[in-house]
Design goal:
Length: 455
């Protein structure tokens, strides 16, 4: 069996869905489990609907709910114009889902109070709509397709908007649900992003979580491959929106991909790698608009050559500098510091320490007020904002002669605030002023990837 996940742009409209269905059709021999996102921009629309509801703006919510319904009904007609009975089935499923959502949002509007649980119900509707329409459309084209509700198998804890998967429960449930849905069918389909607690309460896996759903399912059924179909030709050497002459990377290791996903390359949800690693399942990143392309394959490290694979970055970070003379020659100081980050659920990216100083970076979207307040009780704390982090990523980069000089040579005039090279030898990261980021990333990329003598 294989898992094929299609993101929002691969299911955006009639043309994209038709392409997606042909891709699935070409792989029926491998028994695909299809995982779909909401149509492109639909999850954003659902967030807006929940905002309107929380503000008790019924008229605003209704207008957006109507847009949601008419886009999906219009799509069903476009897709199944020649097969009226399938179109009829799809429309009645859409109307059913939309009627329930209208009533639910109406109730939230009346209360004017939006719990995380209610929000999970609202924002997961996009995946239910897309998976139902695509299921009908696949059947209308002669691909007998079974439907699965992700809430019966993707089990999480009760953080409603960022459910933590219960791997054991998922591994136990998914194979049964998949084989039952497969009975007599050529393919099966389910929703990405959508999950539930063991008591069946609705949760979701967090923004962009459909990739994660795909790899959780892949792990649970021991898939031979996990395919992530998106709208780019694979993983690139840098973000092409910032850097010219980037190249598509043919193969990278799980470790390299994990670092890249975390440090900015938006191709994969960062947690996608972990379930695949557990079962050593290759992940392909492929372009549904160029299905003949090779894409990028993510494999176990032993199949991957040494060397720099990418220059990634995080644009908005904060550097927290913690200074205390109490740190000198004592033990347990670091524990005390990181306990504060842990209690306040602030996640740390880079760490660098010296005798009396610890510097850490955190994503600037996190609220660090409490952390700073609590650290200040026993240390001097200074926060540097407007900083960006650049990471040079590649297997065993430590073995590359002159990596540091090559990386930093183009940055002669740029201030470097913090440097960290993980012992994993996969990642060399450092911090620069945000105003220097674009220039720095371009120059490093040029130096590392466009200079033949360096490769
Ligand atoms: N539809 C969800 C989102 O936009 C999940 C996903 O597409 O992966 O975040
Ligand atoms: Mg995505």
């Amino acid at each position: 069996m294989i898992v094929m996940k299609f993101g929002g742009t691969s299911v955006a409209n009639c043309e994209a869905i038709s392409r997606t269905i042909s891709i699935v059709q070409s792989k029926l021999a491998q028994k695909p489990v299809v995982v779909v996102s909401a149509l492109s921009k639909v999850t954003d629309l659902l967030y807006k609907i929940s905002d309107q509801a929380a503000k008790k703006n019924t008229a605003g919510a209704v207008e957006l709910l109507d847009q949601l319904r008419s886009r999906h009904i219009g799509l069903a007609h476009d897709l199944m114009a020649e097969t009226p009975s399938f179109c009829h089935d799809a429309c009645s499923r859409i109307n059913d889902i939309c009627d329930r959502l209208d009533a639910f949002v109406g109730a939230v509007c009346a209360l004017g109070e939006l719990s995380d649980r209610s929000k999970a119900v609202i924002i997961s509707t996009g995946e239910y709509l897309s998976s139902n329409i695509i299921c009908c459309a696949m059947n209308s084209k002669g691909i007998k397709t079974g439907f699965m509700d992700a809430r019966t198998m993707i089990i999480t804890g009760n953080d409603y908007l960022k459910g933590e998967p219960d791997m054991a429960a998922i591994a136990e449930k998914v194979p049964g649900v998949v084989s039952e849905a497969y009975d007599g069918n050529d393919a099966v389909i389910t929703q990405g992003f959508v999950s539930a607690t063991s008591d069946g309460e609705p949760t979701v896996l967090g923004r962009g979580g459909s990739d994660y759903s795909a790899s959780l399912i892949g792990m649970a059924i021991d898939a031979s491959v996990i395919e992530i179909w998106t709208d780019v030709d694979g993983v690139r050497t840098a973000d092409p929106r910032k850097v010219e002459n980037t190249r598509c990377i043919e193969r990278i290791s799980f470790e390299e991909a994990a670092e890249m996903a975390h440090f900015g390359a938006k191709v994969l949800h960062p947690l996608t790698i972990e379930p695949a690693v557990k079962k050593n399942i290759p992940i392909y990143v492929l372009n549904s608009m160029n299905s003949e392309g090779k894409g990028t394959v993510i494999l176990q490290s032993s199949f991957i050559e040494d060397g720099v694979k990418s220059v990634s970055f995080k644009e908005n970070i904060l550097v927290i500098n913690i200074f205390s003379t109490k740190m000198i020659n004592t033990s347990g100081f670091l524990k005390k510091v990181f306990e504060i980050f842990s209690i306040n659920k602030v996640s740390v990216d880079l760490i660098s320490t010296s005798e009396a100083n610890i510097s850490v970076t955190v994503d600037s979207s996190q609220n660090i007020d409490k952390v700073v307040e609590q650290l200040s009780e026993f240390a001097d704390v200074y926060v540097d904002s407007d900083k960006s982090q650049i990471s040079v990523i590649g297997k065993n980069i430590i073995n590359l002669k002159g990596l540091l000089s090559r990386t930093f040579a183009p940055l002669a005039d740029c201030k470097i605030y913090m440097i960290s090279q993980g012992a994993s030898y996969v990642n060399l990261s450092f911090v620069v002023d945000r105003s220097e980021l674009t220039d720095a990333v371009r120059q490093i990329h040029k130096y590392l990837f466009e200079n033949e003598s360096c490769n």
